[in-house]
Amino acid sequence: MRIDLHTHSTASDGMDTPAELVRNAAAAGLDVVALTDHDTVRGHAEAIAALPEGLTLVTGAELSCRIDGVSLHMLAYLFDPDEPELARERELVRDDRVPRAQTMVGKLQALGVPVEWEQVARIAGDGSVGRPHIATALVELGVVETVSDAFTPEWLANGGRAYAEKHELDPFDAIRLVKAAGGVTVFAHPHAVKRGEVVPEASIARLAAAGLDGIEVDHMDHDEPTRARLRGLAGELGLLATGSSDYHGSRKTVRLGEYTTDPEIYGEITRRATGAFPVPGTGGPRPA
User: Fold this and answer.
1) Is 20 within 8 Å of 43 (Cβ atoms)?
2) At a CB cut-off of 8 Å and minimum separation 6, what does 28 contact?
3) Rounded to an integer, what distance in angstroms lies between the CA atom of residue 114 and that of residue 141?
4) Fewer CB within 10 Å, N side or C side of the chain?
């Protein structure tokens, strides 16, 4: 089985619609794909309706969190999307995305970048606006060559010149809320140092003690030594070690299924979840 547990669609900052994403996942030879848009479950219904035969969808979201002044992303899988407290927190984060993005546009303008809010809003479309949309605008303007090049201290990285904070969950609250909604939590790309300051391992241990289920080990932003260290840390803390692409379509160079999760780990995630269940595809034949 080939299992990719971290992807994004146009419901947040990906380039593929939810329907396109599941079709592309099947064409890439995946057996299981998780749709984990930022702080939203809006793409799930479309993905389910288009799910090809032979592909299983894991519903989820990537929750924006902050601990001790450091941003982190928490992947939440197979939770009840209608659980009211968790739904309210997701809405608070989403509502803060537009004013936060507008603040970053203003900072860029003050730095001499001729970016306009209308350009960023066009790029975001119906998705939850975020830094990748602003980064895409910088690419369009020729300020940087790639989206990844915008995530530096010079521009949009955590603490960067044009960075602005947003409403973020306390990760201990996130774990509690996801657990209460029957879901499973995995700390996304915990040592992605090029994105900015990372959470120290002592804090990861605290999160593990609070019920964190796993950490994302195999990820494009982790080099081989980092993956080895994180795999060892997962073993020390009794955490599940996952792998995934963090696919955003053409916005990033990573391919669907470029990094994957071991089937035994996937089985444990589904065993722990009680809020929702993986959805088998019935939307049509699998692409050849």
Assistant:
1) no
2) 255, 256, 257
3) 8
4) C
pLDDT tens digit sequence for 161-194: 999 988 899 999 999 999 999 999 999 999 998 7
Mean pLDDT of the chain: 95
**Amino acid occupying residue 123:** I
Residue showing tokens 């939810």: 18
Is 286's pLDDT higher than 80? no
Q: What's the pLDDT score for residue 159? A: 87
Q: Which helix (H) or strand (E) holds 271?
A: helix 263-272
124 and 109 Cβ atoms separated by less than 8 Å: no
Please tell me the distance from the alpha carbon of residue 100 to that of residue 47, in angstroms, as a whole number. 28
Rg over CA atoms, the chain: 18
The size of the chain, in residues, is 288
* Separation of alpha carbons 164 and 157, rounded Å: 10
Tokens of 208: 């593990």
- The yes-or-no verdict on residue 35 having pLDDT over 90 is yes
